[in-house]
Design the sequence.
């Protein structure tokens, strides 16, 4: 590593995620392992969305479509074709990447609200399609044959293994996020975010850069989908394509700080913490999503750059560490 | 002298408006070409056509012996054409250095990040923005933003530089500095087309001047020829005495 200072920004994110991974390992508590799994999943998805939202400046309201679609494709091969979870995740990630590539060619020419609306439409269209797609079980979805777990030493072991795979995917998402941010490709994306026309005048090939950003932001969610449905043992259309989860991901990225590596981690952690409190509280349990909406509104109004962006702005020396 | 850019019969319409009518000229390497004309004459439209922002309906644009008429603006940039904007377009949330690095990375030489950082440092020193390198571009004042536009364009080491009113909105000492900078750019061997309303400056630095009026090329020649051209004085300045006064203006 010739220029280690460039990679200083990766240090805190890795440390934070390592902490979350180690917490259930140390406590040896299955319930905290489940909580940690949920947080890691949120971090991986939010960090992926951040490549498009934070670096490129394109708001995707339907990013969960890649999680659902990749998950469906991967689970189909694991369940019906007897593939291993590894091969299933690979094919799920590729399927989501391919979907993003084709969609990107079609809708990334739209800007601002029009792009955001198109992404919602795609999520709903995909849900309706899967609902009527008999190969994937239509409205009933697919239930994993219990025998699939045998190859991994039974259900309990498979669940334990899923946690470590989730940790691996989260680390992968962070490393991708960091390398996109510090690369020439990422500089082009940030130029597009700031002013797409000016970026093109300077030679940034915006159509292809945006498409690759979209593809990169779709692969990890596809793999996470496969893993989550594998762990859950079943998948149904309304579980795979929940629009409100897309919006929750947006809240996480905005809360922590879009366009930073650490932001989505902080945002996902804080949001899951808040959500955990709200759904168990007597007062808020039924209006949990409304509270998220209010949070999003407050962020947009008062700290549009998120917590990390705010800190970077207020304390310039932190810029090197908080990337 | 070789011809760097050849504009051949370029015509552009916006609905019923004839923005450019058969504009034709050759630009030899190493020259500074001044492009003047009243507001709405089609100067920026001509830049946009040369630069590939929108292709002309008729005519061809030949840059370094290649037909670039229908290529996208990023193709032009990669071939060695760079421009500044009349209304500055900084990448606000990136630092001044990062702004310039974008120009260096994605322009003609396709530089890697390390090389681009060196180019940025060099160009920022050249335009006098070194002290601001780590500031966010959005925090600069207008004169600094104009310099930033120029630095971004130069960092790509282009063959041709299109300057769109780099002097507008600057005070007289800032204009003096900017004119010196433009001359220094030419000394580096970069060919320049500049749109300018500040007559004294454009007469002073240009080798040749083209006058546009309602999208028509009404005159072409050396600064002396243009300032004595009846048609220009009448169509563009209206009052012959105004020309003399503008030339003396500081």
Sequence:
């Amino acid at each position: 590593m010739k220029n280690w200072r460039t990679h200083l920004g990766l240090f805190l994110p890795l440390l934070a995620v390592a902490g979350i991974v180690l917490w259930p390992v140390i406590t040896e508590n299955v319930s905290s392992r489940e909580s940690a799994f949920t947080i890691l999943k949120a971090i991986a998805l939010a960090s992926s969305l951040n490549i498009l939202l934070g670096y490129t400046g394109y708001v995707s309201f339907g990013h969960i479509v890649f999680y659902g679609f990749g998950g469906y494709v991967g689970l189909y091969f694991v369940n019906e074709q007897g593939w291993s979870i590894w091969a299933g995740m690979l094919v799920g990630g590729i399927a989501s990447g391919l979907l993003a590539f084709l969609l990107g060619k079609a809708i990334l020419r739209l800007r601002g609200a029009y792009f955001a609306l198109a992404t919602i439409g795609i999520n709903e269209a995909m849900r309706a399609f899967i609902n009527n797609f008999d190969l994937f079980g239509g409205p009933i979805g697919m239930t994993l044959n219990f025998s699939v777990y045998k190859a991994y030493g039974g259900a309990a072991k498979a669940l334990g293994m899923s946690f470590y795979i989730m940790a691996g995917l989260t680390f992968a998402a962070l490393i991708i996020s960091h390398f996109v941010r510090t690369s020439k490709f990422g500089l082009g994306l940030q130029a597009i975010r700031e002013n797409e026309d000016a970026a093109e005048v300077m030679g940034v090939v915006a159509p292809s850069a945006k498409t690759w950003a979209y593809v990169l932001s779709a692969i990890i969610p596809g793999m996470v989908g496969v893993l989550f449905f594998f762990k859950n043992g079943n998948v149904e259309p309304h579980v795979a394509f929940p629009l409100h989860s897309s919006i929750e991901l947006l809240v996480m990225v905005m809360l922590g700080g879009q366009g930073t590596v650490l932001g989505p981690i902080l945002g996902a952690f804080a949001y899951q913490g808040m959500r955990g409190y709200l759904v168990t509280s007597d007062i808020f349990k039924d209006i949990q999503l409304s509270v998220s909406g209010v949070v999003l509104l407050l962020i947009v109004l008062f700290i549009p750059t998120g917590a990390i962006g705010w800190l970077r702005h207020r304390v310039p020396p932190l810029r090197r560490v908080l990337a | 002298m070789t011809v760097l850019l050849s504009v051949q019969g370029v015509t552009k319409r916006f609905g019923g408006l004839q923005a450019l009518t058969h504009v034709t000229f050759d630009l030899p390497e190493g020259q500074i070409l001044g492009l003047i004309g009243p507001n709405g004459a089609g100067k920026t439209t001509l830049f946009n056509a040369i630069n590939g922002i929108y292709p002309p309906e008729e005519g061809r644009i030949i840059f370094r012996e290649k037909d670039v008429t229908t290529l996208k603006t990023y193709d032009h940039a990669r071939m060695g054409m760079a421009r500044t904007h009349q209304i500055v377009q900084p990448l606000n949330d990136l630092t001044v250095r990062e702004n310039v690095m974008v120009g260096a990375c994605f322009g003609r030489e396709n530089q890697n990040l390390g090389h681009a950082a060196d180019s940025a440092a060099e160009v920022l020193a050249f335009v006098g923005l070194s002290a601001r390198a780590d500031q966010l571009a959005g925090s600069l004042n207008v004169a600094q933003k104009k310099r930033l536009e120029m630095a971004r364009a130069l960092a790509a080491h282009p063959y041709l530089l299109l300057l769109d009113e780099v002097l507008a909105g600057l005070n007289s000492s800032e204009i003096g500095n900017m004119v010196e900078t433009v001359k220094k750019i030419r000394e580096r061997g970069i060919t320049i087309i500049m749109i300018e309303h500040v007559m004294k400056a454009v007469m002073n630095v240009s080798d040749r001047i083209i006058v546009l009026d309602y999208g028509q090329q009404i005159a072409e020649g050396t600064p002396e020829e243009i300032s004595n051209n009846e048609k220009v004085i009448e169509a563009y300045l209206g009052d012959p005495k105004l020309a003399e006064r503008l030339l003396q203006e500081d």
Remarks:
- The mean pLDDT of chain B is 91.
- Residues 1-80+159-250 of chain B form a domain with the Rossmann fold fold (CATH 3.40.50.300).
